[in-house]
Amino acid sequence: MKKLILFLLIPLSVFSQKTTMSFDSNALGESREITIGLPPSFEKNPNKKYPLLILLDGEYLFDPFYGALNYGAYWDDLPETIIVAISQNKKNERATDSGFKSENGLPSETGANFFEFIGSELIPFIEKKYRIAPFSIIAGHDVTAGFLNFFLYKENPIFRGYISMSPEFATDMETRIPEKLAAIKQSVYYYQSNGDGDIKKLQEAIKKLDTNIKLLKNPLVNYKFDDFKGASHYSLVLHSIPNALYQIFDSYKPISSAEYSEKIAVLQSGYVDYLVNRYDNLSKNLGINIPIRINDFIAIEAAILKNKAYPELDKLAELAKKNYPKSMLADYELGLMYEKMGDLKKALKSYQKASQLDEIGNLTKDMMMEKYDDMKSQTAKK
């Protein structure tokens, strides 16, 4: 009974990853409600850093984004991400926040204040309070989707990812955005969408921007446009969110069967280099540093065996030792190399050493001892 009472007295927030708070802004001269969504692993991994997603129209965009990211992270297709959603549900708030001067297409006084609030107050606060990777995304819908493009106007934009759903543009954005993307000097991910049931006036400008961006030659720009059939101004949001996230985080997902068949198995050499470069690019482009997945080791091992490039198993073993120093993976790969190359005595020793280390993936101590016994029996026959 005492245990039950203690459980009931623990605040529910201990078990929740969603927190809503008031943020006092000097730039806005008022408090603004923000909702913070932390990944399930945040407390368990004190050294891990997470990408940041800033949501405009947070009162209705938080839940669909949070659900999509958690679902993708469950299957390890999307990285766990910290979400910060800004509520804009007061009367006319989203319009004034996104305000701009029609004559020059730049933020008006209230729009400039909101811009300052995000870049100079909110993000520094989040970066100080939480472990943020050097990769941030901003997303919005309608007028806020247009507003988020102002961050691209800066010489060194603070966001690397832009999710613009049915945007309502400021003056000349259809030409200014491509100009900024053409000159950008760091990799950037840009997504925009509309539906054939969307507001006609918005569709014209969106498609004009799409045409202009597709003329760009800048290899640093990763661009995707969705024109959803049968989607309205509002329903297109639920179509857009997973598409945008999977576009931006495409390089995060594990090696797929298609990638293995089309890009890896067809290589003549350099299988381990492919794996190293894949994770180096993940770190460089998305600011995400994670150990190489066990299944990705298995995929590279399979390609090496398929193409009988057995010496590369030595490089794979070095990589395994770096990523999983206490596991049996490195010695298993060495044992496999020696076995395939006919040096059964060295294979025997490697499998024996592997049997004394931590199990990993589908590699077990029993499996290593079976390999050891097999090498021993073959050696005895010789």
UniProtKB/TrEMBL annotation:
SUPFAM superfamilies: alpha/beta-Hydrolases, TPR-like. It holds the Pfam family Esterase. One of its GO terms (molecular function) is hydrolase activity. TPR repeats lie at residues 328-361. The keyword Metal-binding does not apply. Keywords: Hydrolase, TPR repeat. Signal peptide: none annotated. This is Alpha/beta hydrolase. It comes from Flavobacterium caseinilyticum.
